[in-house]
Write a structure and sequence with these properties.
388 residues, Aspartate Aminotransferase, domain 1, Aspartate Aminotransferase, domain 2, eight-stranded mixed sheet, 40% helix, binds pyridoxal-5'-phosphate
């Protein structure tokens, strides 16, 4: 049998993630990497002592460790989402949350609305289901409500996928007004909200972060969180909290997928959270990343201020640059790599006709040492100017 006969239609079309392919460069010590949404390991706390998690040897519940689920319930309650432990599922990172949700709702030919641009690995997951991904024009306050309404009325999409806080890749944070308008529209039309919120705790300014899920009155919702950006991504631990009707289906899918998330990782996180050190740790991360963001902003102004467009993100890890006309992000990637600076071109963040969107690059300020930010932006500026 030929391989093409063996693979499903979707598997044949699968593309590998550019970020994953570039990751091996970012691990080389002489490369200054702005690519990848990797947190800075210099600020990761030590793991709790192994004795505290010794009882992780046996199989566990598919829903996840009870102690961690209770902590998630308390965390999301502080954010305004009232949910029970039964509505909470621990996942192998929020990436698995996206996979499980996709398999729950997306048939081939189902439509899902996303921001434009959107998280590239969400595009991969939705495409794997064969779904039609309709990206919706988004500005610095969030997804366009008018366009969302007309697409919902024309196509009855299955769901809307949003990253309202410090969006990946564009860095924007939705205004409260936009959050309210979107919630009202979803309630009116009864459309499922998938709200992905891994960056919310990396917040540097006073901005509204009300979960849109908490504003809904009747529409179904799934809210996703992760410990990757604020603790240890290597443990691959995230969560899904969903409305009562959807939660049992997510658990069944989790069972079929991998029985349950690794208990050791879940218990390490639960045990760390129980120490009470997490809030101080978050404050430290906010200070460190804010300082890096500010240094990057200064360097961008200094070396590229009159050439590229960018907004100052109020949190998260990313700055989204629009390059001057005629400058290609792919060429910037190749030329910058020769100078040992790694960036991520914007194209994979566009689900449709991505080749038309070759004028953006995403820079993460999180993992480059602050002392090297100025120098690496200066090198990047040389590369961009050489293309003019
Ligand atoms: C918007 C968004 N969702 C989900 C994820 C996946 O995170 P996790 O490590 O929890 O799987 C990422 C990681 O970069 C992300 O940026």
């Amino acid at each position: 049998m030929k391989l093409s006969q063996l693979l499903t239609a979707q598997s044949q079309q699968m593309e590998s993630s550019l970020v994953r392919e570039l990751l091996h460069y970012s691990q080389q010590p002489d490369i200054l990497s702005f690519a990848g949404g990797l947190p800075d390991e210099a600020y990761m706390p030590d793991f709790p002592a192994l004795e505290s998690v010794a009882d992780s040897r046996q199989y566990g519940p598919s829903e996840g460790e009870k102690a961690l689920r209770e902590q998630v319930v308390a965390t999301v309650a502080e954010r305004g989402i009232q949910a029970s432990v039964e509505q909470t599922l621990i996942t192998n990172g929020s990436q698995q949350g996206l996979d499980i949700v996709s398999r729950l709702i997306l048939d081939s030919d189902s439509m899902i609305l996303t921001e434009q641009p959107t998280y590239l690995a969400a595009i991969q997951v939705f495409k794997l289901q064969g779904a039609i991904i309709q990206d919706v024009i988004s500005d610095d306050e969030g997804m366009s409500v008018a366009m969302m309404r007309s697409l919902i009325e024309a196509h009855q999409p299955k769901a809307v996928y949003l990253i309202p806080n410090f969006q990946n890749p564009a860095g924007h944070c939705y205004s409260l007004k936009r959050r309210q308008e979107i919630a009202a529209l979803l309630d009116e039309k009864g459309i499922l909200l998938i709200e992905d919120d891994p960056y919310r705790d990396l917040c540097f300014e006073e901005v509204d972060r009300t979960p849109i899920s908490s504003l809904l009155k009747s529409a179904p919702w799934i809210y996703m969180g992760s410990y990757s950006k604020v603790l240890w991504p290597g443990l691959r631990t995230g969560y899904l909290v969903s409305c009562e009707e959807i939660a049992p289906y997510l658990v069944k899918l989790k069972q079929a997928t991998d029985l349950h998330t690794n208990r050791l990782g879940q218990n390490l996180i639960a045990s760390y959270l129980a120490t009470g050190e997490f809030p101080a740790h978050l404050e430290k991360l906010q200070r460190v990343y804010k300082a890096k963001r500010d240094t990057m902003m200064l360097a961008l102004d200094k070396y590229l201020g009159d050439l590229v467009q960018f907004e100052k993100p109020a949190g998260g890890m990313f700055v989204w640059l629009t390059l001057p006309e005629g400058v290609s992000s792919k060429k910037v990637l190749a030329d910058a790599l020769e100078k040992k600076v790694l960036i991520l071109p914007g194209t994979p963040f566009y689900p449709n006709n991505s080749e038309n969107f070759d004028r953006n690059i995403r820079l993460s300020f999180a993992r480059v040492p602050e002392s090297k930010l100025d120098q690496s932006i200066s090198l990047l500026a040389d590369v961009i100017k050489a293309q003019l």
